Amino acid sequence: MKIRTLEQLRALEHELRAARDRKPCVRVCGGTGCRARGSEDVFGRFRVVLENEGLADAVEVKFTGCHGLCERGPLVSLAPHGIFYQSVEAGDVPAIVTETLARGVVIERLLAQDPITGKRVRQEQEIPFYRRQQRIVLRFNGVIDPTDIREYIALGGYRALGDVLTHKTPEEVIEIIERSGLRGRGGAGFPTGRKWRLARAAPGSIKYVICNGDEGDPGAFMDRSLLEGNPHSVIEGMIIGAYAVGATRGIIYVREEYPLAVRTLQIALAQAREYGFLGEAIFDSAFSFDIEIVRGAGAFVAGEETALIAAVEGRVSEPRQRPPYPVQRGVWGHPTVINNVETWANVPIILERGPEWFARLGTATSKGTKIFSLVGKVANTGLVEIPMGMTLRELVEEIGGGALPQREIKAVQIGGPSGGCLPKALFDLPIDYESLTEAGAMMGSGGLIVMDDRTCMVDVARYFMDFLRDESCGKCLPCREGTQRMYELLTAMCEGRATDADLDVLEELAQVVKETSLCGLGQTAPNPVLTTLRYFRSEYEAHIRQKRCPAGVCKALIRYVINAERCTGCVACVQPCPQHAISGQLKQPHVIDPERCIKCGICYEVCQFGAVEIV
Amino acid sequence: MTKLRINGIEVEIEEGASLLEAAQQLGIEIPTLCFHPGLSAYGACRLCVVELGDGRLVSACTYPVQEGLRVRTHSPRVMRARRMLIELLLSICPSSKRLQDLAAEHQVERVRFAVRDERCILCGLCVRMCAEQMMAHAIGFVNRGYRRRITTPFDLPSEVCRRCGGCLYICPVCEVRCQGVEAPSAVCGSCMTPAPTCPPVYEDLACYMGAAGECGTCVRNPRMPDSHSPTVAGRRVRV
Question: For A532, which of A26, A297, A457, B142 could close a Cys bridge (C-beta 3.0–4.6 Å)?
Fold first, then answer.
């Protein structure tokens, strides 16, 4: 059916919502993390068990997008009870159906535990991980089935689009976005409204809007989760944006490595066409627009907008000089607006709730919320959405649940490989564009990696440089050769071969790469080096002068030894050693043969008594 | 016409011109490597970086002139950056006369990186020459990052190369490359011609790429197939 008027949409929305509220619903997380932990089996099992119990018509089962708390997956939430179960296995399903759904009995062992009080909590909102979040963009993630457009419509989806096309001029839309203070969520933070205004003013009858879904940072999955969990919010945002700038064609650039996101998008686009939200004369207005998917073949640099344009045009994704900016000359030479997935997803919400509401969230210069993928050495890893201006400490300690047992958090890497490492001393820094940039990091697209006392900052810098030397497109000299040379210098440091002079060269080179590279990738590539040098210089000096790795990570600089006083002679470490390097009798202190030891650290992990030490 | 100031001197130039052209109009010399007036600007070697009024360093060959722009072509920051870039270039192409001259001009006296003689700075001039002037598109870049190199599609002898020698002619650093000391590869036929094949005689020695041996000069090289070697689909193969 095609929706032609706002009244038709409202009628459909009421109808769908009424039907929706009628039955209880099981929502199984179908995000990539939970799928990897077996949520597809859980979902399948629910259908079988409900069928067997004769409840198939009485209870609805949905495979939703990412719930966020990936650490504890697979996650299952029950509506309307609001009960939130974690680490659910297929074997738990019969109990959930026969006890919770049929008799209303809560299964204690599947509930989340408050880390401080140790009490089991029933509701999602009671879990500290969710309590401190402000889920606005992610509000439907984990609630709706992303493969069914009616789910999105039932919760008010496409209402903003209908209102825009029937009641607002493009100028008014741009003005609303400007007033909201929305800035690009891809990293650089360019004001979205201003970008749209420039594109609208650019001459030309053909214009494009592009959704940049080339999320390539190691450990980042914000855009992926949005596209997988709520694709229509992105599509609706793009249609509104296209109307505002006068574009007739839209492109979603998404990486081939996200097969689930691609499939979800294909379904969503087909359904949006079927309902008339894409195609000719949308909402019976004079506005026609359609979106196609372009799949990227996996190059980090394709996230840079001029490289993305090259990729869309079928060329190798290599960046070019800006200006001209894409809003002046983009895809096939036509004015093009490129916004990140999360930016587009913010648009319908701003139109629906008003720019003033949006502008009240966040700080003076950074409005709204930001999604982060919280990973690394932290208790709760997962997908979080927080208001701008929250401090790093709140994010890491309260939402993230702090360090792993017996460890101490040392730093966070924020903003992906191009971001920077910020030390614990700066954890009171508010998360907004300006503060992060000033500290040498950047907002980036929202990757946040937590590091603890067992993370070597020189090794971290080397890891990111290894990533970047491979992901640099190689077009310009400073990025191609500079990242390679920085990697070589950092490797020398990690292996204890470096001198003080190397440290000076590294610093000098990093500065030049930052200043002279062609595109954003090269200009930010030295950030991991520059920030670790700025905040953790002593670790570099320990590697160079004392040939020592304070965190005990760099293999060339450490030795594993057994503390004879602590060793109980339990032989637990003897058998797992792949090199047979540990010798010793039962109840006698063991010894590691340094000649054979390959420093794999297995003995360190298995020792219950802390007798294996890194020196 | 667009008016801007370079090193404090006002210059007026037509819209769409580059900063490099504007500087040249004033007689200011900016070093370049990947730039050639007959080819599209590429902005890869970054040697022509200049400092803008807002503190950014941009490549003069690709940056379009803008009204009221203030540009410094030889500020201390620019010179420091150029010196580091030359050091990086020398570390991958130490025997190039052109790079050595540049180093001397910029007082680059040492290379602090492990030298890795690659005899190519990936400036892309040959690729653009082949595509834009010769319309052959016989060579291009493969891979990315530190693995990037220039070759023919699939490393196979090119079917579209006309052996014009344009790539060699334009290469800023290949004094060594064409002496035949390299192992045979897709780009270099390793034809072992007795002297560097220089542009004035390339019509006689047109064997830079692919089916080396056609001209007969290199038949003496035992490493190369002679004109009676077996052929596959009309193409001589190495035995």
Answer: A457
Average pLDDT per consecutive 10 residues, chain B (239 residues; last block may be shorter) = 96 96 96 96 96 96 97 97 96 87 92 89 94 93 92 84 81 60 48 40 42 40 37 33
User: Which of helix, strand or coil describes residue A516?
Assistant: helix
Of B45, B112, B121, the CB nearest to A505: B112
Residue A316 domain-assigned (yes or no): yes
Fold of B2-105: Ubiquitin-like (UB roll) (3.10.20)
Distance CA B227, CA B233 (A): 15
* HEC sequence for chain B: CEEEEECCEEEEECCCCEHHHHHHHCCCCCCCCCCCCCCCCCCCCCCCEEEECCCCEEECCCCECCCCCEEECCCHHHHHHHHHHHHHHHHHCCCCHHHHHHHHHCCCCCCCCCCCCCCCCCCCHHHHHHHHHCCCCCCEEECCHHHCEEECHHHCCCCCCCCCCHHHHHCCCCCCHHHCCCCCCCCCCCCCCCCCCCHHHCCCCCCCCCCCCCCCHHHHCCCCCCCCCCEECCEECCC
Q: Where are the domains of chain B?
A: 2-105, 125-236
Please give the backbone phi and psi of residue B189, each rounded to the nearest 5 degrees, phi first.
-80, -5
Predicted local confidence at residue A29, as pLDDT: 96
Query: Chain A contact for B86, CB < 8 A?
Result: no
How far B67 CA sits from the closest chain A CA (Å)?
A: 13
Looking at the structure, do residues A394 and A344 belong to the same domain, yes or no?
no
Chain A: which residues have CB within 8 Å of chain B? 299, 301, 316, 320-321, 323-324, 468-478, 480-485, 488, 501, 505, 508-509, 512, 515-518
Structurally, chain A folds into a number of domains equal to 5
Q: What is the mean pLDDT of residues A126-151?
A: 94
Spatial distance between the Cα atoms of A231 and A215, rounded to a whole number of angstroms: 15
* pLDDT number for residue A438: 92
Q: What's the confidence (pLDDT) of residue B175?
A: 53
CA atoms within 13 A on the CB side of A79: 15
A481 to chain B, closest Cα gap in Å: 7
pLDDT of the residue at A366: 95
- CB contact residues (below 8 A), chain B span 173-202, against chain A: none
pLDDT value, residue B226:
40
A266 pLDDT higher than 70: yes
- Report yes or no: A240 and A174 within 8 Å, Cβ to Cβ: no
| Strand-strand pairing, A249-255 and A290-296 | parallel
3-state secondary structure of A334: coil
* pLDDT score of A182 more than 80: yes
User: Contact A470/B146, CB-based, under 8 Å?
Assistant: yes
Residues of chain A positioned with their CB less than 8 A from the CB of B16: none
The pLDDT mean for chain A works out to: 94
Which of A430, A452, A474 finishes a domain?
A452
Does the beta-carbon distance from B85 to A518 stay under 8 Å? no
> Which 8-state DSSP code applies to residue A404?
P
- Say whether residue B84 is in contact with chain A using an 8 A CB cutoff: yes
- CATH at A219: 3.40.50.11540
Tens digits of per-residue pLDDT, A278-292? 999 999 999 999 999
Residue type, A423: P
State pLDDT tens for residues A412-453: 999 888 889 999 999 999 999 999 999 989 888 889 999 999
Secondary structure of residue A425 in the 3-state scheme: helix
CA A359 to chain CA centroid, Å, is 23
Chain B nearest C-alpha distance from A42 (Å): 42
Contact state of B121 with A477 under an 8 Å Cβ cutoff: yes
Is the backbone peptide bond immediately before A323 cis, with ω within 30 degrees of 0? Answer: yes
> ipTM of the assembly?
0.91
Mean pLDDT of A493-507: 96
Rounded to whole angstroms, the Cα distance separating A326 from A334 reads 8
